[in-house]
Request: fold
Amino acid sequence: MSFKPLLPSLALSLFLGMPISDATASEVDAAGYYKLRCATCHGVNGEGTRDKSPSLGPPLRGNPLVINAPAEVLASIIRHGRGGQQRVYDDAYPNMPAFDAGLVPDAVGLATYLKTVLQQQETTSHSSDSARWQVPAGVVAAETANEGEATHEAPPNRASADEGHSQTQLVGPVHQPSLHLTE
Amino acid sequence: MSTGMKTLLICIGLFFALQFGVIQDAQAVAAFARQTGMNCNSCHIGTYNIVPNFTRTGRLFAMRGYQVPYIRERLHAEGDTGNNNEQSKYGGDYLALNWTDFFSARLISEVVRGGEDASGRSLDERSSPINRMSLFFSGAITDWLGVWTEIGYLGNNSLRSVTPDRQNEQTGVNFFAYDEYRINASWDFGKNSFFGFSMGNEHPNVGAQFQYPLPLPDLWSNGQGGVGRSMDMANLSAFMFYDDRLYLQVAGVTGADNTNWSDGSNYYLNVSYDWFRKTRNDLWLIGEYYAGNDFPSIMTRIKDSFLCTGACPPGVTDQNFSISNTPGEVIVNAPVERVKHFDSFRLSLEHSAADRGPHTWYAATTFLTMTQDFESGGKVEDTQVGAYLRYFYARTYGVEVFVRDHLKYEYTTPAGLKRDTYTKPNYGITFLWYPAMNFDFWLSFSPRVQNIVFEDQRELYNDNASSYVLGMEYNF
Reply:
């Protein structure tokens, strides 16, 4: 039996099977879940919705808490939400809902996405919101102390609370995958 | 042991059984909470007895017509459309209303009710196990269109006759179904601004939910579709929210007694300003103007056509009145008049503070005045003020107090004779307990319910009453 006729097809299959970007599968899923569960309140590019009425969520892009807190802490916030006295922002935002495993299967993966890929998103003029919001002093430390045990571990991209979104480096365009729902 | 005492003990037992049993794990699952993913406290400062005071988020959510795009995304995620690229599209293949997310219900039960009315009659028999039961089908249809519907049932004793000599009697009808709806479309324009239109069968100030809190003076008796002086009305409304702080609304209303535009109509204006603009600390200054020529007299208890058909006072037909169980302005033994024109103005200040530490409260004060010119040539002028506070500790234990009074309430007869009224402040206190944010108990006292009489008949009719109610509400 000759395999020669099959080689072109095999080569094509291998070629098509190659990743067309350096985005991992988890990043693809995280981006999809960000669009599905987060973007309405926190903006398509993490810029927040302070310019909308009602305003639903603060910017995550350039957010010192997102940048500095360990992914486990952010995952805990995703899992439990923040309501009532747990809210940090003395602004127009309402309580943050809790997202269980049925809504966000991989909270740590999504948190990692928030800390990495989202921080590198290219945004338009509506990122102005993230430039002017402020997290009260000590909030990051308090959040990490309250939310998990990983506070002793220095986050990889530490920034001071008042330095905003200037701490990350752009590493090129980010692949925007299509939405994959697994639930 | 009396039957009333047994009932009270059973209720107290149920109270504690529920506290240590089922309710601890209760969740907020009403329609909007399910749709948005946010809990009830994001938008409300208590919902006790259909008075859903609002945070800033809730106020704006209502103004926009219950549209939050998140709803749409959840529907697509759970609606098995199979094509997520359609998320931003609408059309005939889009499921607008999802049964699970858009359906909810409310049950209000007045388990124990007592006191005595102005004639000294005991109110114990007026306990109402099912005081109100309603179904909701509400939420966003698209990201610019939303709907609110409520179909309900009011329990016993809701209706009172206006037939002479039977004004304190029940009608014999022991239930009353009602319905209400509004459809609301809105669009963004610029930063923190939107405009829109709405239509519905309620008073137009429900669009921004400025009819609450209910214990404050309200001569318009905002209806809610089937009760109040605004029954069977229809309204068309245009509104705008500008720069995150200024709300403007104009509306045309068919009138209070029917949906016919040709026999008279009213109009409504609203100019409101939001000062603090924080969901945890919000302050609204609200100015409202309502005027027209289709409105019932505020002096008389409103229709009870079930009895009035055969024994109406001269000149009175069913079309003169709308059904209401709303007292408060009715003058004992007042003459029946038909309104030729009315003007009314209301100025309110409302402050909501949510989760300031363990403290949450909603405070409001209102000044309201109405002048009605009658076809007979007479007129009535009523000016009221009121203050209100609802406070919660840890969103669980609360107290609500209100006081309201008439500054002036005077009837001028067709002959020009001025008849002043004798009134006293009306006040009440209510203790609240929320085992869960969608399940609450209340115990309210109204130490003195003062009926309103003409000064020249004060010795004949003036009397005091008192009342207390132990009730519960469950939104699910």
User: Anything to note?
Assistant: The first helix of chain A runs from residue 7 to 17. Chain A touches chain B at residues 36, 40-41, 51-56, 83-85, 87, 90-97, 99, 103, 178-179, 181, 183 (CB under 8 Å). The mean pLDDT of chain A is 66.
